[in-house]
Amino acid sequence: MDYLDYTKTIRETEHIIEAVDYLIEWFPAMKIEEWRCIMMNFKTGKYGKQYERLMLPELVEAFQQFEGERAERRETTWKHIKDKPQEPMTEEQINIFKKLADDLDLPEDDTDERGRWKFIVHPNSTPDE
Question: How many domains in the chain?
Answer without folding.
Answer: 1
